[in-house]
Amino acid sequence: MNKKVILACAICSSRNYTTSKNVSTQPTRLEVKKYCKTCGKHTLHRETK
């Protein structure tokens, strides 16, 4: 079952991206390096609650 998740920047905590993930195959929180408009560089984005 796919679930919609929100990705937030680890440095400035701005919520920049939304994506979906399969909860049954990946129960841990998603962490991806993405571009943050607020910081102006590529940073780690983590899944929020």
UniProtKB/TrEMBL annotation:
Residues spanning the membrane: none
Record has Acetylation as a keyword: no
Pfam family, one: Ribosomal_L33
Keywords, in A-Z order: Ribonucleoprotein, Ribosomal protein
Highest rank taxon of the organism: Bacteria
Ribonucleoprotein among keywords: yes
An example Gene Ontology CC term for this record: ribosome
InterPro entries assigned: Ribosomal_bL33 (IPR001705), Ribosomal_bL33_CS (IPR018264), Ribosomal_bL33_sf (IPR038584), Ribosomal_zn-bd (IPR011332)
PANTHER family: 50S RIBOSOMAL PROTEIN L33, CHLOROPLASTIC, LARGE RIBOSOMAL SUBUNIT PROTEIN BL33B
Protein family (similarity comment): Belongs to the bacterial ribosomal protein bL33 family.
Entry-linked NCBIfam families: PRK00504.1, PRK00595.1, rpmG_bact
Protein name per its UniProtKB record: Large ribosomal subunit protein bL33
Organism: Virgibacillus kekensis
